[in-house]
Amino acid sequence: MLKRLGPTLIIAAVVLGPGSIVNSARVGCGFGYDMLWVVPMAGILMLSMTLGAMQIGIRSPDSMATAIRSRIGGWAAILVGGSLAFAIALFQASNNHALLMAFDGLRNQEGTSQNGLLQVVGLLVFNGVLMWMWATGRGSLYRIIERGMIAFVALMAAAFLYSCYVAGPSLSGVLGGLVPKWPDESAGSDGAITTWKGLAALLATTFSVAGAFYQTYQPKQKGWKVEDARAAMVDALVGIGSLSIMTAVLVVTAASSLSGQVSLSELTDAAAVARLLTTSGSYSVQLFSIGVMAAALSSFVVNALIGGVVLADVLGKPTDLSSPAVRYCTIAMLAIGMTISMVAILLDVALVRFIVIAQSLVVFAFPILAATLLWRFWTLSNERGTTP
C-alpha cells in the first residue's frame, strides 16, 4: 500500500513547497477563514486532472511526446516540452531560494541576513552533490526518493498540525470558511492583497498542472495495467487529499494566529512565517521550520526529475528512470534552476519577491499543458471507440 502511494505523494511533495506555505499564510492572514473554501475546490480540480492523466498513462501505448509528435508534429512536442521545462526551471529556481529561507528558519534568523556570495556557494555545493548523485546513480536513486516522500509528508503534517494546535482555531470559523463566499475586496489586510490575488494564490498552491502532467508517465514507470486503475484512483485520492488538508491547515493556522494582528508586510519568507505562526518558543519555530525544510527538499528533487523525464521524451529518448537521457536531462534542470537563482541572488533580488515573480510566470505554461492533457484524453477515447 505504501509503495503504491509513492506517485501521488510525489505530487503532494512537488506542489506543497515553501512558496506555497508563504502563499497560504498570506491568504489566511489577509482574509482570515473567508477563503478556506477555495482549498477543497482546488483539490477537486487537481484530483480530476490527476485521475485523467493516470488514465492516459495506463491506457495509452505511447508516451505523451510520442503521441503529440505522431499526431500533430514535432513542433508541437517541442512546444509542450518547452512549456513544461519553462515551468520546471522557474519552480526549481524558486526552490533554490526556498531552501535558503528554510535554513534561515532553522537558525531562527531573517532570510536576508546571509551574505550573497555565501548563499551562492551553498547552492553550488548542494546542487553539485545532487548532480553527482544523478550522474552516477541508477533507478535506485528514484526509489529512495519515492520512499522518502512518505517521511517528508509525515514531517510536514506533524509540524503544521502542531502549529495549528498551538494557534487554537475556531471551529465555527473553520466551518464558516468552508461555505463559498466572496470576501470584501478591502479585507486583505487593508487591501495589501486583493481577493483575486488571494484566490489565485490558493489555486496555484493546490492545483499544479505540471504535477498532474507527470502522472501520464508514472503508470508506465510503475508497470501499472488497466486492472490497476481502480487502486490508482484510491491512491490519488489519498495523495491529493493529503495535499489539500495540509494547505487548509496552513490557512487555518494563519487565520487563527495572524489575521488582524500581523501585517502582510511581515510575511516576507518562510522563515518569517515560521516565527510568526509559532507562539510557544524557539522549539516551535524550529519544528515548523523542519516542515518547511521537508517541503523544500521534496519539491527540489522531484521537480527536477519531472523536467528530466519530459525533456528526454521530447528528445525521443527512453523515459525509463535509469536511462542516461533522463539522468542528464534532470541534471540540466538542476543546473538551470540553480543558475537562475544564483543570478537573482547576485542581483540582490529579495528572496520572497523572486519566488512570487517566478511562480507567477509559471501561469503562462499551464494552459498549454492542460490543453494537451485534455486533447490526449479525448483522442485516446476516440481511438478506443468510447465516450470521453
Tell me what portion of residues adopts beta-strand conformation.
Answer: under 5%
Shape: globular
The major pleated sheet works out as: none
Number of strands: 0
Q: N- to C-terminal separation?
A: 29 Å
Structural class: mainly alpha
Q: What is the C-alpha radius of gyration, as a whole number of Å?
A: 20 Å
Compute the number of helices.
17
Taken in chain order, the helices and strands follow as HHHHHHHHHHHHHHHHH
Task: Explain what the structure shows.
- The protein has 388 residues and is mostly helical.
- It is built from 17 helices and no strands.
- The protein has helices at residues 2-15, 18-31, 38-59, 64-71, 74-107, 116-136, 139-167, 171-177, 195-206, 209-214, 218-222, 229-257, 270-277, 282-314, 324-346, 351-361, 366-383.
